[in-house]
Amino acid sequence: MPDGSFAHPQQRQFNPYSENGGTILAIAGADFSVIAGDTRQSEGYSIQTRYAPKVFRLTDRAVLAVNGFAADGNVFVKKVKQRLEWYRHAHAKDMPLRAIARMIQTMLYAQRFFPYYVYNILGGIEEDGSGAVYSFDPVGSYEREACRAAGAAQSLVQPFLDNQIYFKNQQSLPGQSRPLHLPLPEVLSIVIDSFTSATERHIEVGDGLEMYVVLAKGRSIQGLESFRGVQELTPNPDGDRVFVIRRELKKD
Amino acid sequence: MDHFPTSWGRQRNDAYDAYNTYPLHQRPNPGHDAFADSVQHTQQPIVTGTSVLAIVYKDGIMMAADTLASYGSLARFKSIQRLHSVGTSTVIGASGDMSDFQYLQSILDELIISEFTEGDKHELGPEEIHEYLSRVMYGRRSKMNPLWNSLLVGGKKDGKRFLAYVDLLGTTYTASTLATGYGAYIALPLLRTAVEGRENDLTEEEARKILEESMRVLYYRDARSLDKYQIAIVNDEGVTISEPQKLVTSWGFAEGIRGYGAQTQ
């Protein structure tokens, strides 16, 4: 063509990724861990569904939250659960949390050149009975932290958590020290506030909130009993225990 | 002797793996595929179907799609069925590339036959069909060779209603009202206001009316749609796909619109 429009054959590349919104977060306490996520799934400006869970119970002491490309997320969770089942059959026990964390890094890095477009946050109880949170990037870089937010409203929620959990930019009174870990009721209110605020200011966050609470073995449910609608997911109250609390978020 | 059949007929490289100690999955790959350049992957849909709508109602699920398969802006095939029953309790509806959809139909029909020949009286329900489809779709997208469709899967088995979506990326979700394509923008808000919260009360007649009204709105606004459509119902009696029916529309109002009727500049 004189104008050169057909000089090169047209090539449109298929894009195998999409972004499905939503936000997740996790906070570790001294002997518990809270892992939460909203339940909206969206693409662009469209809400696909108001209930698509992003937080999954893996074992009696591990909960995984996934955020990013929903198709990759669901497949990834499925594969993690499968590996944990194989581990159970081989060793007659559940995989410890730090081992799950390392396994997730290996599984993510195995896809280094065609990554799962997913941000993972793993929360639960460590073998020493302490609450733990591990956060990952899509290709497997990970670290243990006290709290982490990820997803669409990460930039809204993480600074709030830095302030409320790590006491960043807060001056303590002379002679007073900051607690290393907050008690469970405080943590749960911070989680709820984080999500109601993110729902106000981010269009991809809303509809429903799912909070998973993992309690270390032997810890009383102190701090949970006052919450309405707490549902226990573990059959055995003698070991580590997992609870879920559901709340509505604004749907607009 | 090289015992690996994949290595037979190839030039032996003694410098590499002289004693044939490498396991099969670590063998050197056979250089490059001379035919790779000639293998085409679907880069865009060609003959396409537009929206599919589906809702949950009291006795089951209901799905609607028109019968048009377009070639770009050309209304190429005006009597193509885009609703397809799978087994005895599932129906799927497709928008996007119709040849990819017909390929999926043949895969699913084979699947149903191979399950039937097991003779164990077990049947795949809508949930299993949806899981299977989503694995096929995600598998193909991961090979960068997608099946270019957005699909709705609906059904009822053992008294349980099921409605879900899956597309060319392998993205899935469930809801009581679903729509693909333009339907997601135009019809879904109508369906949500009509259905959400009333899933267990809506009668078959009411559900049919809601879908018909939505199909009519789509026909008025979607330039790639047709006034001929089918409705699929899955309830305790099984799957029923209706004969094509005609939408009643009135275009009288359009006469007064500039750019449509007689010009009165």
CATH topology of chain B: Glutamine Phosphoribosylpyrophosphate, subunit 1, domain 1
What is the H/E string of chain B? Answer: EEEEEEEHHEEEEHHHEEE
CATH homolog superfamily of chain B: Aminohydrolase, N-terminal nucleophile (Ntn) domain
Number of strands of chain B: 14
Pfam families (chain A): Proteasome (PF00227)
Subcellular location (chain A): Cytoplasm; Nucleus
Keywords (chain A): Cytoplasm, Nucleus, Proteasome
Main location (chain A): cytoplasm
Task: Report on this structure.
The complex is a heterodimer of chains A (252) and B (265). Chain A is an alpha+beta fold. Chain A contains 4 helices and 13 strands. Chain A has helices spanning 70-91, 97-109, 154-164, 184-201; strands spanning 23-28, 32-38, 41-43, 46-49, 55-59, 62-68, 118-125, 131-136, 142-145, 147-151, 208-215, 230-232, 241-248. Chain A has a 6-stranded antiparallel beta sheet with strand order 10-1-2-11-13-12. In chain A, β5 (55-59) and β6 (62-68) form a beta hairpin. The longest helix of chain A is centred in the N-terminal third of the chain and has 22 residues, at 70-91. Chain A is globular. The mean pLDDT of chain A is 94. Chain B is an alpha+beta fold and 265 residues long. Chain B has one domain (48-237): Aminohydrolase, N-terminal nucleophile (Ntn) domain (Glutamine Phosphoribosylpyrophosphate, subunit 1, domain 1, 4-Layer Sandwich), CATH 3.60.20. Chain B contains 5 helices and 14 strands. In chain B, the strands form 2 sheets. In chain B, strands 1, 4, 5, 6, 7, 8, 9 and 10 form an 8-stranded antiparallel beta sheet that branches. In chain B, α4 packs antiparallel against α5. Chain B is globular, with a radius of gyration of 24 Å. The mean pLDDT of chain B is 90. The A-B interface holds A 11-14, 16-18, 20, 41, 43, 46, 48-52, 69-71, 74-75, 114 and B 41-44, 134, 138, 141-142, 144, 146, 165, 169-175, 184-185, 188.
